[in-house]
Design goal:
By secondary structure, the protein is of the alpha/beta class. Helix content is 38%, strand content 26%.
Length: 317
């Protein structure tokens, strides 16, 4: 163990993607700086994930800490459990990722090459593995008197070329390969598991910033995650893109989570207009895309009325 950096655990949240999980695990075990533990939170997979791990001999590796939950509690619940386990087991840093993402073999070494600050968390750039000149997601940013905005630039060369340094303050892309210190966890707690998916990661980012911690992105450190398929509709001469996901119930959580973030953080981080712009696009979608309309409206009304979050089983009825 590098005494200066302390103990490091990777946390992977998985659900019914055993082949992708195996690929992620292989990349973690190939890291040029070894991990102290790999915590796998299995969100009650039904595709034989545990049997696949056993058959591939991963579970005999003492570094692998596999936990299978009794129900699917979403990415938010999975990261809640994974971060909590890493914190309670005393790790100094947790390195977070989904099962469909994976790092370069030197990603962890590059993190550890920094003069790490326990009051900061660190992010790699996230690229599409099929087109490595494309950023997978836009970024949440924090500049100019803590003004939050959403960066939609996807061309990696244009993005990196606009900066002269290899590490910049204020950008984040949670939870895709972020490197998080236990002191931040001790101060702000764990993700809000009731948020389930699509927005829980941004809430955690904003909570970190609102509590005075910093976020850095390393422009020379790479993590891979596939891009989501998107569909575009036209409205008043403008193009609005949305994730064309068959799990339309996810739009319930996205709508609720956006409203929550706007209410909770708009005063400290001035998030109102970016969030409201995103919410407006969702209302336009609700008017034009019938298959997601009811979930967007349900999320809108439940949040306004202050009702408890609906569970996945309730939404699927």
């Amino acid at each position: 163990m590098d005494e200066k950096k302390g103990k490091i655990a990777a946390v992977i949240v998985t659900y019914n993607r055993k082949e992708l999980l195996i690929n992620c695990l292989e990349k973690l075990l190939q890291q040029t700086r070894s991990l102290d533990s790999i915590i796998i939170i299995d969100n009650a997979s039904t595709d034989g994930t545990r049997e696949c791990l056993e058959g591939s001999d991963f579970l005999s590796n003492p570094k692998i800490d596999y936990i299978k939950l009794i129900e699917n509690i979403g990415g938010a619940g999975g990261f809640y459990e994974g971060i909590k386990r890493g914190y309670e087991r005393g790790f100094n840093w947790v390195w977070l990722m989904d099962d469909d993402g994976f790092p370069e073999v030197n990603t962890l070494e590059l993190f550890c090459s920094l003069d790490l600050n326990q009051n900061s968390c660190y992010c790699p750039i996230v690229l599409d593995p099929l087109d490595k000149n494309q950023l997978t997601f836009g970024f949440c940013g924090f500049f100019n008197n803590k003004s939050i905005y959403f960066q939609s630039m996807n061309d990696v060369d244009s993005f990196i070329g606009s900066y002269r340094t290899k590490i910049i303050s204020g950008y984040g892309n949670f939870f895709n390969g972020i490197f998080l210190n236990r002191e931040i966890i001790k101060s702000i707690g764990f993700p809000r598991k009731e948020m389930f998916i699509w927005g829980d990661e941004n809430e955690y980012l904003f909570r970190i910033l609102a509590n005075g911690f910093n976020v850095w992105i390393m422009l020379d450190n790479v993590f891979y995650h596939p891009r989501f398929p998107q569909t575009t509709i036209a409205f008043l001469g403008k193009k609005i893109s949305y994730i064309d996901n068959p799990a339309t119930w996810k739009y319930y959580y996205q709508t609720r989570n956006l409203l929550y973030i706007n209410k909770k953080y708009r005063s400290q981080l001035k998030v109102r207009w970016p969030i409201l712009k995103c919410l407006l696009s969702r209302l336009i979608l609700a008017a034009h895309v019938k298959k997601i309309r009811n979930f967007i409206l349900l999320g809108l009304f439940d949040q306004i009325l202050g009702l408890p979050y609906k569970t996945l089983s309730q939404l699927k009825k």
